[in-house]
Design goal:
With about 300 residues, the chain is an alpha+beta fold. The protein contains 6 helices and 12 strands. It has a 5-stranded antiparallel sheet. Helix 3 runs antiparallel to helix 6.
Length: about 300
């Protein structure tokens, strides 16, 4: 998997260049697009540079806690702008289409953002050409305490990041095919770097116990493909435990089913860090705890 991803990254600049419209070139070292075209009326040559907002290598860490008195989950994210990024990270958002939740920011430098036409919720920082070096998260730095509070359980969701770009608009006078190309690059999702994390999903709440186990198995497949689960052996152990738990529930053997879930959680505690990452751990922790409450009720 890692080798395949590495080959894709090596080939990416060539794929981009192969798809570029006439008059546009891409400079991999700077991540800048260079536009050069001749005006058909006065035959003058015009040039323009486009800086995408995706010159980032972002990472996330997450802590998820459940408050039994309120029935609410707290999702606390740490956003890391990788040292190989070429821009300050100025926006972080999460895929979310559920009911109202509480949202708080790390400091007054960050704003809460609602996306009226997109299923997202997020944060951004005040930025301009004058303060671009001071705003956001610099390469190699991190910011903690992007917090969501929700009644919804965790699921695997997409998250998005944007960097500070000197290009805010597409200038008038570009040939139509070039204008259309760059307008598309400035729209969602092309104008953001996508990663995966865990976050609240209202969809889980309506599932039966059997459906929740089936959903958790599907997320286990996804966690393996994302390399949140580091070995096939751990993946097989988790999948087998979920299958055996479902079989026990079907014959109404709740006690052994609970014991199976407790043993799975004990194994996950042991494997956390070396064999599974934080996203996977908190995903299983809170689903198993929820299933325990269901079976004990």
């Amino acid at each position: 998997m890692k080798y395949t991803n590495y080959l894709f990254l090596l080939a990416l600049p060539f794929l981009l260049m192969a798809q570029l419209p006439e008059g546009v070139s891409y400079i991999p070292e700077s991540g800048i697009y260079h536009v050069s075209f001749r005006d058909s009326v006065n035959q003058r040559v015009y040039t323009w540079e486009f800086e995408p907002s995706t010159k980032l290598h972002p990472f996330l860490d997450v802590l998820v806690e459940y408050e039994s008195n309120t029935g609410l989950y707290s999702y606390e994210y740490t956003v890391i702008n990788g040292k190989n990024s070429q821009q300050n990270l100025i926006e972080f958002s999460l895929e979310y289409d559920g009911p109202y939740l509480q949202q708080s920011q790390p400091s007054k430098k960050w704003n809460l953002v609602s996306y009226f036409n997109l299923p997202l919720i997020g944060w951004n920082t005040n930025h301009s050409a004058e303060n671009k070096d001071q705003s956001g998260i610099k390469p190699g730095d991190r910011v903690e305490e992007f917090i969501l509070t929700s009644q919804s359980m965790p699921a695997i969701i997409a998250c998005f990041f944007s960097g500070y770009s000197s290009t805010q608009t597409v200038p008038d006078g570009l040939p139509q095919h070039i204008e259309n190309y760059f307008k598309e690059l400035m729209e969602f999702p092309e104008n953001k770097v996508r990663r995966w994390t865990i976050g609240p999903s209202a969809e889980i709440e309506s599932l039966t116990t059997e459906q929740q186990l089936a959903s958790l198995r599907r997320m286990t497949d996804q966690a393996l493909s994302l390399e949140w689960i580091k070995t096939v052996r751990i993946y097989s152990n988790i999948t087998n435990s979920l299958n055996e738990t479902e079989d026990l529930i079907k014959i109404e053997s709740k006690g052994p089913a609970l014991n199976k879930l407790k043993q799975l959680l004990k194994n996950l505690d042991k494997d956390r860090g070396e064999h599974i990452n934080n996203e996977a751990y908190f995903l299983y922790l809170h689903h198993i705890r929820h299933l325990e409450r269901r079976l004990s009720g």
